[in-house]
Amino acid sequence: MSGERKRGFIRPGADDATVTPQRWGLPDYGAESHKAAKQTAFNYDPGWIPNFDEPELEVEHELTEEEIALIRTAAQQEGFEQGHAEGYQQGLEQGKAEGFQTGHQEGQTQGYQDGIAEGQALIQEHVKNFMALANQFAQPLDLLNAQVEKQLVDMVLALTKEVVHVEVQTNPQVILDTVKASVESLPIAGHAITLKLNPEDVEIIRQAYGEQEIETRNWTLLSEPALSRGDVQIEAGESSVSYRMEERIRSVLKSFCGINRHHPGE
Q1: What order do you get walking across the sheet with 193-197 strand by strand?
Q2: Where is this region: Disordered (predicted)?
Q3: Using one digit for the tens of pLDDT, what is the confidence trace for 46-86?
């Protein structure tokens, strides 16, 4: 293994140790012997000298009439196309600007009018709804007012009856005035008269007029327990008059309520 030559290594031999080294010099590129030198590794010929001769002048070509006409036509066509393109672009931009301005104004005006119309319609609808709601609240109030009014009238009527009944019971003049008014209302005077009264009112008439005066007046007093205090029924031949205290009270209240624009309950 030690005597074999290793691959990749160059070992000097015994003859190589006696070789005398030599000096290398640069080649003389100016000598005649090197004019036919070969090209280098960079493909460069050291003996090549560039040629600086003047370039040949080009002869000016004279245009024919046909070529001039073609050039003129081409120039006109190019100018026409360029002008057409520029005019089209300018007109398009101007048309867009004018159209946008006009459309914007018209759209704004139309939108404003449409907005007002829609707003008014919406307001009218809300007003209508509020009016309907107010009417719904007003109807129960009107009904309540009518009910309260009827209750008040009925209460006044009942209270008046009680007051009148008390007045009739405590004040004999009430029945006396009633009998007088009833007799005077008869269409025929001088006939026999029959008076139907409450038993207590009969006693009041007897005490007030006396038997002699009653006979002179040709009155006949009859007790009628079904009649209330203050009620009078008079018969004279074919004529008759009925004075009931409750009806008189109701008539007075009806007249009073009519004057004050009220409607009493029946």
Answers
A1: 219-223, 193-197, 232-236, 239-243
A2: 1-26
A3: 666 666 566 666 656 676 778 778 888 888 888 778 877 87
Q: Give the chain's domains with CATH numbers.
A: 151-259 (3.30.2320.30)
Task: Give every residue of the chain whose pLDDT is below 70, as ranges.
Answer: 1-22, 24-61, 63, 103-104, 134-150, 152-153, 156-171, 187-190, 252-253, 256-266
181, 243 Cβ separation under 8 angstroms: yes
Residue 29 CA: distances (Å) to CA of 25, 33, 34, 260? 12, 9, 6, 151
Using alpha carbons, select from 237, 230, 165 the residue that is nearest to residue 196: 230
Helix (H, G, I), strand (E, B) or coil at 241: strand
Q: Report how far residue 169's alpha carbon sits from residue 179's, in angstroms, rounded to the nearest whole number.
A: 15
CA distances from 191 to 183, 194, 210, 217 (A): 11, 10, 19, 9
Tokens 């004050």 appear where? Answer: 260
Give this prediction's pTM: 0.37
Both tokens of residue 177?
Answer: 């005035």
